[in-house]
Amino acid sequence: MSSSPIAPDQALHRLRQDGFKVEIRDQHLLVHGVPFVTAQRVVRFGTLVCLYLQEGDQITPPNGSGDNHQMWWTEEYPCYPDGTVLDLGSDTATRELLPGLTIRNRFSSKPDLYHVTGYPNHYEKVVYYVRMIQNPAKAIDADVDARNGVITETQSAESVFRYPDTASARASILALSAKLAVQRIVIVGLGGTGAYVLDQVAKTPAGEIHLFDGDIFKSHNAFRSPGAASLAEINAREPKTDYYKRKFDPMRRGIISHPVFLSEHNIQDLSGFDFVFVCVDKDEARALIAKYLVEQGIPFVDTGMNLELIAATNSLIGTARATLVSPTRPETASECLPMGKEDDDVLYRQSIQVADMNAMNAALAVIKWKQLLGFYSDTFRSYELSFAVNFGTISRKPCAQDPDD
Length: 405
Known about the structure:
Elements: H1 10-18, E1 21-25, E2 28-37, E3 43-51, E4 54-55, E5 58-59, E6 70-73, E7 91-98, E8 101-108, H2 122-140, H3 166-170, H4 174-181, E9 184-188, H5 192-201, E10 208-212, H6 219-222, H7 231-235, H8 240-248, E11 255-258, E12 275-278, H9 283-296, E13 300-310, E14 315-325, H10 331-336, H11 355-372, E15 384-388, E16 393-397
Parallel strand pairs: 9-10, 9-12, 10-11, 12-13
Antiparallel strand pairs: 1-2, 2-3, 3-6, 4-5, 6-8, 7-8, 13-14, 14-15, 15-16
Helix pairs in contact: 1-2, 5-11
Keywords: Nucleotidyltransferase, Transferase
Protein name: Molybdopterin/thiamine biosynthesis adenylyltransferase
Domain THIF-type NAD/FAD binding fold: 178-305
């Protein structure tokens, strides 16, 4: 995730012209240096924060951004000169809103003029909140003012995304999503499950996504992968890894194609990565990859799916499985993964695949990855998730004994 220079916007231009110290960071507008009165009747300074969503080349006004009349505040709750608290619709909740930015309160207030329609632009919204918070401070010290004439334009490392992640901004989970940004990950196998893993991981700020698969993209792949391939793309007989890199390139950077199968001759190409999704259809390949990753201490999720046609009912039954193997639980690989042994969970036993089950398998795998990084809570610390389509249930199990248990 990155910050960008202040974008062209009339409301923002007015704030700058008025002398407000404004900053645009991760789809949020920050107004620094706003004076307020503490409960001890002392003047301090804080930062107001609200959504500032850029949809394409347009800035979404507050009344269409999802937060409408809300503002976050980085300091303790502001007061009147006598120390009694202001009425700004307080919602006290200390948390990291953006990477490196902690908020302590959220306000929800608007004047009667905008009671129904909401603030028409960011200028009106900022000015209203600043006036409410600053006026009591000016009663104590007439010289303090949020209009201090200092303009901040933040520019940090370039985002992997080619356009802003407004979804995470709207949900106020940018700081949480940053947990995924440090990752250099690998997806081995771009069949149905691997393709859907890519579809989900590409929408995270993971720094690099490396794709390994030596096969070409064919018509049967088109029917169990995200999106829609054209006839020309199928006829092009393009390597799968090149095809998917090209498909996701309009959205993000950092996808690297490796149009090769992994073998004992190049398995070392997996060295140095943070996480691997193993989505292969041969137990021999799974065993080779799992052994190497365990030796290198690289965490990974192995995916598996077994669908079976029941002749009596002319319907499918089966499961989709995602098993996490981490450096603290390496025995999970030998105890849980089907690697050449007779097991009902052998991947693609009948080579039956359906797009929705591939997508489910990928979702289970990505959820385990995100749980490992703390994006999702993992109350039961399960190391395997499986979905049984005929029962409509998701089960969990810790394959190996947790050393803390």
